[in-house]
């Protein structure tokens, strides 16, 4: 049932292009408009939404952090993303005009369930983004957008994460479409690129051998740091989470701009630091900033592992290891940038002799608070 792979995780990483394509299937019509009728929240209600709050845990929370950036950019509706386990304990401000999005692969995560119950008690509308048909979270929500990743068996989430991102982009674009905000060339181009993104994920998967080699060479390290900015920051957090849960290594993700406010003191000779570089097109200021971050850490002896878009030459002089990913629109980059980090963590875990599909102390769905 592992389809020839040694681990479910490897199989599920390989299934990502299909999972992404399946999650888009039937949701974009021939004219490039989104057809999310299955989200049965009336357009009139969506037009009244004045705040979006996303609740989720772990990997799904990282998808939510990226969704926040997409929603605010494409709809101009204020959006916040919160750890589901923290949410209801701070007496959050919610009302009928708040749209709460609960993201959960299993649909059974107790922290997320309790957060959405609290939101509904306050009168907010809840949309679930979920991979498991008929599970508790969609049943208790006002609406659901299913991700079509298929069953995810490995404890570490991979294909579910990519499909959560796709579903969140669709929600963000749909909100923009319904409300008519910023609906223009950029959005149409993004929808076209989204339709092609499965191919880009495939391209990344085909070029992973050097990443595996690199991972094996780092098997005796104690610490790996991950840096990113904008959508690259949640990707860095996700890379660090994968490494913690699979390789049992000390791994931390930082917003690269925060380095100088403390974490740079951690940098020492030969410390592996993975940097997720935004596209040099689009937000070029951000790109320049991160290039100088890479220079700073390299000057202090870090071993830089740079994930950068094809054709980005500015990073070359400062990259000890360079991992290329296809060019995508800025907001979609996590769909390709996360894949090498999954492969990296899986390979490191294997090299360290860990059980990849069943990491110690973890369960696939966390049904206690
Ligand atoms: C990490 C991982 C967990 C889950 C989290 C939420 O690889 O799998 O962090 O993402 O427990 O689970 P769901 O999405 O089922 O609510």
Automatic annotation (TrEMBL):
It comes from the Bacteria. GO terms for biological process: carbohydrate metabolic process; fructose 6-phosphate metabolic process; protein N-linked glycosylation; UDP-N-acetylglucosamine metabolic process. It catalyses: D-fructose 6-phosphate + L-glutamine = D-glucosamine 6-phosphate + L-glutamate. The keyword S-adenosyl-L-methionine does not apply. One of its GO terms (cellular component) is cytosol. Its main location: cytoplasm. The active site is at residue 364. It is an enzyme of class 2 (transferase). It is found in: Cytoplasm. Keywords: Aminotransferase, Cytoplasm, Glutamine amidotransferase, Repeat, Transferase. Its EC number is 2.6.1.16. GO terms for molecular function: carbohydrate derivative binding; glutamine-fructose-6-phosphate transaminase (isomerizing) activity. The keyword Repeat applies. Homodimer. Catalyzes the first step in hexosamine metabolism, converting fructose-6P into glucosamine-6P using glutamine as a nitrogen source. This is Glutamine--fructose-6-phosphate aminotransferase [isomerizing]. It comes from Streptomyces lavendulae subsp. lavendulae. The gene is glmS1. The chain holds residues 248 to 616 of 616 of the full protein.
């Amino acid at each position: 049932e592992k389809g020839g792979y040694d681990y479910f995780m490897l199989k599920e990483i390989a299934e990502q292009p299909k999972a992404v394509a399946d999650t888009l299937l039937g949701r974009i019509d021939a004219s490039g408009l989104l057809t999310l009728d299955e989200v049965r929240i009336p357009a009139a209600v969506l037009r009244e939404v004045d705040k979006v709050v996303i609740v989720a845990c772990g990997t799904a929370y990282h998808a939510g952090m990226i969704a926040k950036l997409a929603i605010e950019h494409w709809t101009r509706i204020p959006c916040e993303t919160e750890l589901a386990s923290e949410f209801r304990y701070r007496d959050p401000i919610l009302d009928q005009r708040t749209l709460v999005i609960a993201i959960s692969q299993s649909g059974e995560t107790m922290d997320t369930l309790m957060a959405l119950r609290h939101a509904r008690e306050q009168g907010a509308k809840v949309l679930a983004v979920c991979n498991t048909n008929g599970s508790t979270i969609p049943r208790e929500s006002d609406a659901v957008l299913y991700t079509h990743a298929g069953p995810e068996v490995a404890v570490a989430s991979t294909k579910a994460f990519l499909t959560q991102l796709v579903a969140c982009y669709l929600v963000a674009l749909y909100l923009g479409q319904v409300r008519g905000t910023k609906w223009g060339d950029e959005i149409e181009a993004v929808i076209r690129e989204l339709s092609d993104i499965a191919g880009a994920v495939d391209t990344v998967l085909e070029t992973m051998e050097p990443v595996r080699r690199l991972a094996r060479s780092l098997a005796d390290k104690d610490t790996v740091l991950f840096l990113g900015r904008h959508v690259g920051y949640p990707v860095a957090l996700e890379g660090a989470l994968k490494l913690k849960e699979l390789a049992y290594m000390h791994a931390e993700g930082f917003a690269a701009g925060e380095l100088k406010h403390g974490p740079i003191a951690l940098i020492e000779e030969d410390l592996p630091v993975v940097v997720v570089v935004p596209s040099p097109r689009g937000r070029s200021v951000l790109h320049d900033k991160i290039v100088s971050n890479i220079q700073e850490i390299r000057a202090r002896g870090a071993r830089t592992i740079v994930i950068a878009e094809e054709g980005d030459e500015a990073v070359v002089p400062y990259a000890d290891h360079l991992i290329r990913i296809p060019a995508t629109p800025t907001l979609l980059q996590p769909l390709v940038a996360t894949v090498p980090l999954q492969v990296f963590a899986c390979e490191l875990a294997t090299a360290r002799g860990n059980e990849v599909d069943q990491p110690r102390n973890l369960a696939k769905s966390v049904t206690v608070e």
